[in-house]
């Protein structure tokens, strides 16, 4: 099913200035919004229209998990439904593997949904009258795959999520966590490149949720899938996402790696979210270190070469262990064998607090972007 | 003008309309008559084809296979009672009348009900109509039916169909309105066509409510079919009418109890099918 000439990092799903305005007078309302700069509440009052998603552009690259984090009403659920055209955008383009969804006939659209985009729902949406196995095989059944074949593939998918021996049971015999595993198995049974996850773990209790988060990330990576993952929980986004977008009032207000967002929140809204997040495993040496010359300037006679060394990728947890273990008050950060900076105690403490050093841009580039 | 002259009389307008229909559309009604009579004849012949001593075990066996021991016992007892009362043929005639009218009622009500759940305007329009159809005393339906189709089984079936449509239609619409939105979304997101969504998601999840509608349709049709004994529909209704007109307690009561037996039989069998469908692992 995969096309052969894909290069790693290519774009699987992209949105270009996509808008969704709900209501009968949506086009009119959108024009008023753009031309007269009406506020959303005015739009609601004057046109009876609700702006769900406004001017969102995003890309999902092959192999990554892209998290969209936002509170209820932020438009995240609308956005994810625009990606497989369960909701048709008011304006803008959504492309899946280069195909503009708006240009597709009903049949071609169904084909794209069946083969290229899987979806997992918050409510799980298992069919109550079918066994776990028949539920998992649903996607293939829709595609007209024979019973023996689809049940075989569904069984493999159930094995991957650890539910092989539950195949003959009915959904209501399973716990919430297990049901969502079936939902995931159903999504991967049709072997799509992209999986859309609509708040899949929100209704689960915290322990099961963490477990499923880890399993999901592992499974997605090991199968080489890409995913758009919707959540209202920033911690979840950080655990799972390679990149995170934060949404508010239908707009993506910040997009970047977890480290990016935690260290450099774009505005007070993001900062408030980030405030409660533990930095220990998130912030890495290269983003809190002081430049060598600045460090030398503050303490004449000191030599960076004599310090204990640490990789630029080391997180705060490791840095603390090392610093406490070595007994010194600074560590040299090395990248490809060369010393690129120094982490002092105060750098470390500020890092734990979540305030990035105001340092020259040389080493401020986050890893994600550096590799592009 | 005198106030007492003001009288609203829909019948005064309807009667000429029926007359006109009779005069101008007679061929159509003749065809309808023929079709219904043929169907009824077929079902009746099928029910009476086997003698009672083969028919009762056969029904019991089918009930056992499809539902369980208790349903089989009940079926045997109820049919046995009909035979013991000497009303075997009348009972089978009544069953045939009910089967044919339920079949036609469902054939009309089911698609309309599905449409009504899809098109809200249709649902709103049908609501009051259904109310009227359910509250008008059933005898009243018999009048135009007899005017058009004359006495006999056909007007009885027509009136029964009209009476059986509202419960089936209402519960069909309800059943389809109740299908969870996330399941429909799952269907679309999986790339299923509207037809596949209807067959594989909507119908199975709506089934319990649909069967409830069918159950209601069957029981109300039975009630109507018995009433239709008044216009010469035959079957158990005819026995009851005879008991009533001759003021004879014995035959009237016997026929009445046989009707109860048939009702119990139909109710339990249709409800049994409803309960059974849950949890039957297919291999």
UniProtKB/TrEMBL annotation, chain A:
Compartments in which it is found: Cell inner membrane
EC number per UniProt: 7.6.2.9
Keyword Cell inner membrane applies: yes
Topology in the lipid bilayer: Peripheral membrane protein
Keyword Transmembrane helix listed: no
Record-stated family: Belongs to the ABC transporter superfamily.
Name assigned to this protein: Quaternary amine transport ATP-binding protein
Organism: Pseudomonas alkylphenolica
TrEMBL record, chain B:
Presence of the UniProt keyword Transmembrane in the record: yes
GO molecular function ontology, one term from the record: carnitine transmembrane transporter activity
Subcellular location: Cell membrane
Topology within the bilayer: Multi-pass membrane protein
All copies of domain ABC transmembrane type-1, residue ranges: 91-270
Primary residence: membrane
SUPFAM superfamilies: MetI-like
Entry's transmembrane regions: 46-65, 72-89, 95-117, 138-163, 210-231
Keywords: Cell membrane, Membrane, Transmembrane, Transmembrane helix, Transport
GO terms under biological process: choline transport; glycine betaine transport
A GO CC annotation given for this chain: ATP-binding cassette (ABC) transporter complex
Family, similarity comment: Belongs to the binding-protein-dependent transport system permease family.
PANTHER family for this protein: GLYCINE BETAINE/PROLINE BETAINE TRANSPORT SYSTEM PERMEASE PROTEIN PROW (PTHR47737), GLYCINE BETAINE_PROLINE BETAINE TRANSPORT SYSTEM PERMEASE PROTEIN PROW (PTHR47737:SF1)
Protein name per the record: ABC transporter permease
Organism listed in the record: Pseudomonas alkylphenolica
Phylogenetic placement of the source organism: Bacteria, Pseudomonadati, Pseudomonadota, Gammaproteobacteria, Pseudomonadales
């Amino acid at each position: 099913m995969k096309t052969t000439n894909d290069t790693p990092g290519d774009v699987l799903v992209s949105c270009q200035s996509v808008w969704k305005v709900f209501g009968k007078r949506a086009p009119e309302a959108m024009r008023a919004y753009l031309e007269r700069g009406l506020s959303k509440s005015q739009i609601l009052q004057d046109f009876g229209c609700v702006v769900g998603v406004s001017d969102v552009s995003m890309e999902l690259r092959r192999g990554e998990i892209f998290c969209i984090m936002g509170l209820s009403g932020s438009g995240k659920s609308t956005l994810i439904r625009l990606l497989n055209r369960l909701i048709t955008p008011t304006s803008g383009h959504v492309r899946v593997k280069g195909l503009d969804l708006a240009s597709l006939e009903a049949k071609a659209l169904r084909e794209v949904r069946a083969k290229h985009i899987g979806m997992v729902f918050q409510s799980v949406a298992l069919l109550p009258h079918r066994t776990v196995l028949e539920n998992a095989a649903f996607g293939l059944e829709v595609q007209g795959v024979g019973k023996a074949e689809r049940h075989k593939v569904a069984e493999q998918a159930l094995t991957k999520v650890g539910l092989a021996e539950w195949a003959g049971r009915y959904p209501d015999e399973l716990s919430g966590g297990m049901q969502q595993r079936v939902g995931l198995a159903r999504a991967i049974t049709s072997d799509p490149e992209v999986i859309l996850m609509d708040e899949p773990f929100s209704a689960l209790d915290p322990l099961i949720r963490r477990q499923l988060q880890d399993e999901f990330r592992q499974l997605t990576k090991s199968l080489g899938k890409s995913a758009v993952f919707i959540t209202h929980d920033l911690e979840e986004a950080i655990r799972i996402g390679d990149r995170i977008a934060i949404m508010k009032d239908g707009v993506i207000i910040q997009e970047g790696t977890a480290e990016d967002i935690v260290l450099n929140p774009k505005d007070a809204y993001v900062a408030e979210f980030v405030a409660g997040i533990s930095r220990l495993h998130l912030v890495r040496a290269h983003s809190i270190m002081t430049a060598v010359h600045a460090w030398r300037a503050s303490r004449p006679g000191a030599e960076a070469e004599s310090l204990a060394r640490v990789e630029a990728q080391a997180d705060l947890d490791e840095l603390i262990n090392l610093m406490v273990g070595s007994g010194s008050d600074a560590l040299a950060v090395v990248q490809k064998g060369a010393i690129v900076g120094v982490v002092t105690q105060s750098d470390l403490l500020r890092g734990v607090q979540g305030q990035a050093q105001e340092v020259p841009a040389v080493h401020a580039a986050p890893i994600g972007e550096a590799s592009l | 003008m005198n106030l007492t002259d003001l009288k609203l009389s829909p019948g005064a307008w309807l009667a000429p309309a029926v007359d006109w229909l009779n005069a101008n559309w007679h061929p159509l009604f003749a065809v309808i008559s023929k079709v219904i009579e043929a169907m009824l004849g077929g079902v009746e012949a099928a029910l009476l084809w086997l003698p009672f001593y083969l028919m009762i075990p056969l029904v019991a066996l089918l009930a056992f296979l499809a539902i369980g021991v208790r349903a089989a016992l009940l079926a045997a007892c109820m049919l046995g009672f009909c035979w013991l009362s000497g009303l075997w043929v009348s009972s089978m005639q009544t069953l045939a009348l009910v089967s044919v009218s339920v079949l036609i009622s469902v054939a009309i009500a089911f698609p309309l009900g599905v449409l009504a759940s899809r098109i809200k305007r249709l649902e709103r329009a049908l609501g009051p109509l259904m109310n009227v159809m359910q509250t008008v005393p059933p005898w009243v339906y018999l009048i135009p039916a007899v005017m058009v189709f004359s006495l006999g089984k056909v007007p009885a079936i027509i009136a029964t169909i009209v009476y059986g449509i509202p419960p089936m239609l209402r519960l069909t619409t309800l059943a389809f309105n109740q299908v969870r939105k996330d399941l429909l979304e799952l269907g679309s997101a999986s790339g299923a066509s509207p037809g596949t969504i209807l067959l594989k998601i909507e119908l199975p999840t709506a089934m319990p409510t649909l069967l409830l509608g069918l159950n209601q349709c069957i029981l109300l049709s039975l009630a109507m079919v018995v009433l239709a004994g008044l216009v010469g529909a035959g079957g158990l209704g005819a026995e009851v009418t005879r008991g009533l007109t001759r003021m004879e307690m014995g035959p009237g009561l016997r026929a009445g109890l046989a009707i109860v037996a048939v009702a119990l039989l139909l109710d339990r069998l249709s409800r049994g099918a409803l309960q059974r469908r849950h949890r039957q692992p297919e291999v």
